[in-house]
Every structure is written in C-alpha cells, then in structure tokens.
Amino acid sequence: MQIETYYRNRLIETANTLKSDYMQYILTSAKRNNINPEVLCAIILVEMINRGSWINKWIEKILIKTFPFLLIKKDASLGVSQIKISLATKMMPEYTAKEVLEALMDDKINIDLCAKHIKKFEDTVSDDLNSNYFNQLVNYYIAGKLTISNRPPHFLLYENLIKWSVSQKVFSSLCFKVDLTS
Predict the structure, then answer these.
(1) Confidence (pLDDT) at 154
(2) Which residues are CB-neighbours of 173 under 8 A, at least 6 positions away?
(3) Beta carbons of 83 and 114 less than 8 angstroms apart
(4) How far apart (Å, rounded) are the C-alpha atoms in residues 47 and 7?
(5) DSSP labels for the chain?
(6) What's 153's domain CATH number?
(7) 59-81 per-position pLDDT tens digit
(8) Which whole-number Å values give the CA distances from 138 to 89, 94, 147, in the listed order?
(9) What's residue 179's pLDDT?
(10) C-alpha span between 40 and 38 (Å, rounded)
(11) What is the pLDDT of residues 129-147, one digit of tens each?
(12) How many other CB atoms are found less than 10 A from the CB of residue 45?
C-alpha cells in the first residue's frame, strides 16, 4: 500500500503540472469520442508518470529523427499517452510510417488516439462501468486484450491508480482550477 500511496502522490503532482493545453485536448477528445474525460485524463497521468521527465520526450524525438526503423522494429510506445506504433499505424492507415511517428509526438493527436482507443474498448465491452471495467481497460490499453493470464503486477498498480483518479475526479478538479468547466 505504501507504493500505491507514493504513486497517488506522484499522480497528483503530475496532475498539478498538467498544461492547460493538455486539459483542453482531453476535454475535446473525450467529448468527440463520447468517453469520460476522467478516464482519459487518468490514463494520461499514469502514462506521464511511467514515461518520466521531459528528457524522455527529447530522447523519443531524437530517436524518431535518427533511428525510426529501430522504434518501429521495437514497436515503441510514444508520446504523452504512450501509444504503441503498431496501434497508431492501425488507427491511421493513410499515414506513412514516418508520419505516424511524427503524429505520435503531437500531443493533441496522441491524446485523441488515446481517446479513440478507450472508445474502442468501451464499444467492445459495453456502455456500463461494470465491476471489471478498470481491470479490462488496463489490459486492453497496455496489452490489447480484455483478459490476460499471468497478469504482470504493474497492471494492478495501473488499474488502482486509474480507478482512484476517476473516483477522486482529478480531472474535474483541475478543470475547475483553470476554468475549463464550461
């Protein structure tokens, strides 16, 4: 439980540094895809913690310019919501490989892809927040499957952080602070 408390604190710290542009992108993408902005924001916050500092963002950009083939071969996760290249390629079939990599580094596009992925998940399971919603959401978001045998331990941490963020209405409280409530 100490680890989870640590990550809850990190989530709040990360939320408090979230750019207002990101909040607007989250709100717009959630509305456009008819999903809960709390869920979208929670996933992005967890991925921002997982991704780490701005240094990782620059490393991603440098690798895109210098070794794009390596990123594609490794099916790297890129951008603010850490979308896998293979998923983005499926979601943007009209884009070339290079355009997909560049699009993943565009925060607005990346957040919208995350929202579309959540929407696809919700359309797959149902419209209701059933008791397995967060478990299945994490499985689907990270591994592309609703159920996973031998689920890695960090999936449970992701699940609990996302569930907690949604229950605490972290995104709504951020919007209230910067007046995105309208």
Answers:
(1) 92
(2) none
(3) yes
(4) 12
(5) -HHHHHHHHHHHHHHHT--HHHHHHHHHHHHHHT--HHHHHHHHHHHHHHH-SHHHHHHHHHHHHH-HHHHHHHT-EETTTTEEHHHHHHH-TTS-HHHHHHHHTSHHHHHHHHHHHHHHHHHHH-SS--TTHHHHHHHHHHHS-S--TT--HHHHHHHHHHHHHHHTTHHHHHHHHHT---
(6) 1.10.530
(7) 999 999 999 999 999 999 999 99
(8) 20, 28, 10
(9) 58
(10) 6
(11) 567 899 999 999 999 988 8
(12) 27
> How many domains is the chain partitioned into structurally?
1
> Any residues with CB less than 8 A from the CB of 116 and at least 6 apart, and which?
33, 91
Burial 129-167 (b: 16+ CB within 10 A, else e): eeeebbbbbbbbbbeeeeebeeeeeebeebbbbbbbbbe
Do the bridges between strand 83-84 and strand 77-78 make them parallel or antiparallel, or are there none, so unpaired? antiparallel
19 versus 92: which is more confidently predicted?
92
What residues make up the domain containing 53?
A: 2-178
pLDDT digits (tens, 9 = 90+) for 74-125: 999 999 999 999 999 999 999 999 999 999 999 999 999 999 999 999 998 8
Token pair in block for residue 30: 């959630």
